Amino acid sequence: MVLKKFSTTEIIENGNAVSLKFADGAVLRFHAIWLRDNAPDKETRAKNGQRLITLSDIPGDTKIESAKLDENNDLEIEFSPNDKVVRFPLHWLEQNAYDYPKGILNPGWLSKKIQTWDQKFLAKIPSAGFDEVHDDRKALAKWLANIRKFGFAKLSGGPVEDGALLKVAALFGYVRETNYGKWFEVRTEVNPNNLAYTSLGLQAHTDNPYRDPVPTLQILYCLENSADGGDSMVVDGFRAAQRLQEEMPDGFDVLANYCARFEYAGEAGTTLRSKRPMIELGPDGELIGIRFNNRSCAPIIDVPFDNMALYYKAYRRLGEIIDEQDMAVSFMLEPGECFIVDNTRVLHARKGYSGEGNRWLQGCYADKDGLYSTLCGIEQELERKVS
Ligand code: FE2
Predict the structure, then answer these.
(1) pLDDT < 50 stretches in the chain
(2) CA of 232 to the centre of ligand 1 (A)
(3) CA–centroid distance, residue 205 to ligand 1 (Å)
(4) pLDDT tens digits for range 340-383
(5) What is the pLDDT of residues 31-55, one digit of tens each?
């Protein structure tokens, strides 16, 4: 971040806020209570960054008595009523500024770290080699950053052995164990003498929408693939939602504003149910999740009668967009190759296949918080090396 050239400070709103003016004309305002709550001094924050006080330890009538730039170019604030003096680095204030107008974010907005895609856009599949990401932190960061950006990446050259997918999860985090175990088998033996055994394709879907919380990452790892066809394919659910919003804004709204229900009760002793929207927006309208899985959709009962016809129209259209050929990126997996998807965003599917041969994949779940934590740690390490 380029630090703006600082100009002047002004106490505003009767001491309830301060306005920082910069040489380029930019203005950043901060509230007294916000600054006091986020004070970086050692009475407020422990060395590990955890806050040592609660909000009730801060007087409700906290105001700014004085504000000036000190000799280190930090903003020095004196708070009343207890005359506490705290210094805030200017770059920290810039990084954490919140002085933007109300209502500027449209429903469905996306973080700048995310890039949506379709087949044409993602002509080159984001991928890396197992040894490379295992041995080189920089290469690992690049691969993880691609997963953050595109919600999907491939990894090649891994070991061809039972459970090898756990080594992929261990590169960035931890496996999420479920009732399917630490991992599960996706194995089909093709018998050319009996067409009934021909494996049909599966519509693109996100996995396990009936869990709450849903597993946020999935790894699918190939151990054997001697069958004809059976390509894997992925579709960016965020791009599909954007297209639905462009074509049918009221359809986007109805899928975002009402919950679907999902259920799995396919084995004794297991009944998993969730109630969540197919298009999930945060309270500020950020597009944060997609759930789409025809096989585990339970009766939808949270949409009022008057909106149900529109809901089904939108659900159908979203499915059609997802099924469009130009939305899908397809690839074959060789033994020792795998792909990872952000299961809250990218749908995966398998094309139908037939002929002789076997296809043996293993799958497991993991979570994005661990992946982002590892990525953030490496990015900070690399930044420290540069500075
Ligand atoms: Fe799946």
Answers:
(1) 192, 194-198
(2) 11
(3) 6
(4) 999 999 999 987 766 677 889 999 999 999 999 999 999 999 98
(5) 999 999 999 999 999 999 999 999 9
Q: Residues with beta carbon < 5 A to ion ligand 1?
A: 207
Separation of 263 CA from ligand 1 center, angstroms? 15
What fold is seen in the domain 127-378? Double-stranded beta-helix (3.60.130)
Return the CATH architecture of domain 6-95: 2-Layer Sandwich (3.30)
3-state SS track over the chain: CCCCCEEEEEEEHHHCEEEEEECCCCEEEEEHHHHHHCCCCCCCECCCCCECCCHHHCCCCCEEEEEEECCCCEEEEEEECCCEEEEEEHHHHHHCCCCCCCCCCCCCECCCCCCCCCCCCCCCCCEEEHHHHHHCHHHHHHHHHHHHHHCEEEEECCCCCCCCHHHHHCCCCCEECECCECCEEEEEEECCCCHHHCECCEEEECCCCCCCCCCCEEEEEEEEECCEECCEEEEEHHHHHHHHHHHCHHHHHHHHHCCEEEEECCCCCCCEEEEECCEEECCCCEEEEECCCHHHECCCCCCCHHHHHHHHHHHHHHHHHHHCHHHEEEECCCCCCEEEEECCCEEEEECCEECCEEEEEEEEEECHHHHHHHHHHHHHHHHHHHC
Domain spans, the chain: 6-95, 127-378
